[in-house]
Amino acid sequence: MRTNNTMKAAVSAALFASLMSSAFAPPAFSQEPAPMRPAKWSDEKTDCSAFKKEPPWTIGVSNYSLGNSFRVQMFEELKFAAAKDSRIKEVVITNSDGSVPKQLSDIEDLLTRGVDGLLVTPLSSEAVAPSVEEAVDDGVPTVIFNNEIATDKFTSIVWADEYRFGWLGGNWLKEKLGGKGNVVVLEGMAGTSTSDLRTRGALEALGDGVTILARQPADWAYDKGKAAMQDFISAYPEIDGVYSQGGAMSQAAIDALTTAGKPLVPVTGEGYNGFLKTWAANKDKGFASIGPDEPTWQSVEALNQLVACLAGETIEKWHEIPISLITEENLGDFVKPSCPDDVWANTKMDYETIKTLYKCTD
After folding, report:
1. What are the φ and ψ backbone dihedral angles of 110, each rounded to 5 degrees?
2. Is the preceding omega at residue 56 within 30 degrees of 0, hence cis?
3. CB-side exposure of 158: number of CA atoms within 13 Å?
4. Angstrom distances, CA of residue 354 to CA of 106, 168, 211
């Protein structure tokens, strides 16, 4: 029996890895937006010979929030990858809970502690920039991910085209509505470039024929998304579609519509399992969606860049990761009915780790 279970686990893990590598290939469209890269984007490389250190290494991480399940899994991905690298002695993760002063203090504390390398998700691209510059000046290689930074004095940045993320959902919604209709918009965390760029991409793709009734930041969170959607439903009797830039907010929007006895209009989403399960459960009832999907494993890419730098290698200064797409056709490959809502589909953790971490029941 133990042998059979082991074989079953191995087959399950192999299948999971195969699905992740094949079905999450970047989508191709006949119409595509131009890349919305940061103004200073270049093919520049960083020669890390001056940063080279003998392992083991202590990695410092300054995170601005664990306020939604995407960010929680993003850091589980980081811990999973770091645990497999024998050169890494310790990963020290700080969380500023959405406070810029706290994040600045966290970075200063990590540098005082003498970390060998630094990973930063900046809450404010402008306010955090001087701390990043200080770290690099102090000889600490610093890799940015999950947001932009208002300086080019960093070692590397792991970057996703958030404008394209928004454009993909907005373009699909426009086509679904025939180019006209009334739409409400659920945004992410106010003031972050991720939220701003996703909304900009969506609005520009939706075009002039679609009326934007209202926009509301909801921090990519279910509870705030549901409250905002309930307000929208109360204020606007005719809503034809919902542009949501986060999966938990998308699930919340569907739940709010259902509770209010409203028809399930098209709602954009992403690879949040709660939303994917809701999408699958309503697919036969005519509900339609699309899921541009930013990977939770971007933290692993950032760690890989940092580790390569500490090893003295030359690395990309600007490192782009793909925005993938979940569609009506491949939804079944990614929804996990036996796992909780908070699992994200686009992961590099194997299924046995996901199953243990989230207590999936299969």
Report:
1. -65, -40
2. yes
3. 24
4. 29, 28, 41
Instruction: Indicate the residue type of 83.
Output: A
pLDDT of residue 191: 83
Q: Are 293 and 323 contacting, i.e. CB atoms less than 8 angstroms apart? A: yes
3-state secondary structure 50-95: HHCCCCCEEEEEEECCCCCHHHHHHHHHHHHHHHCCCCEEEEEEEE
DSSP characters over 139-189? T--EEEESS--S-S-SSEEEEE-HHHHHHHHHHHHHHHTTT-EEEEEEE-S
Question: Residues 154-182: pLDDT tens digits?
Answer: 999 999 999 999 999 999 999 999 999 99
**pLDDT reported for residue 185:** 98
Cβ atoms 128, 1 nearer than 8 A:
no
Which residues of the chain fall short of a pLDDT of 70?
A: 1-31
Which residue, among 323, 279, 294, 336, has the nearest Cα to 77 in the 3D structure? 294
> Rounded CA gap, 230 and 250, in Å?
13
Q: What secondary structure letter does DSSP report for 326?
A: E
CA gap 223, 237 in Å, rounded: 22
- The answer for residues whose C-beta is within 8 angstroms of residue 262's C-beta and 6 or more apart is 233, 239
Q: What is the pLDDT of residue 31?
A: 66
**What pTM was computed for the model?**
0.83
Burial (Cβ within 10 Å: 0-12, 13-18, ≥19) of residue 192: buried
Which tens digits make up the pLDDT trace of 235-286? 999 999 999 999 999 999 999 999 999 999 999 999 999 999 999 999 999 9
DSSP secondary structure string for all residues of 277-304? HHHHHHGGGT----EEE--TTHHHHHHH
Question: How many other CB atoms are there within 10 angstroms of residue 258's CB atom?
Answer: 13
User: For the segment 200-219, what is each residue's pLDDT rounded down to a tens digit?
Assistant: 999 999 999 999 999 999 99
d(CA 332, CA 233) in angstroms, rounded, equals: 30
The CA distances from residue 255 to 17, 135, 155, 222, in Å, are 31, 45, 43, 10
Tokens linked to 102? 């706290």
Contact partners, residue 237, CB within 8 Å, separation at least 6:
none
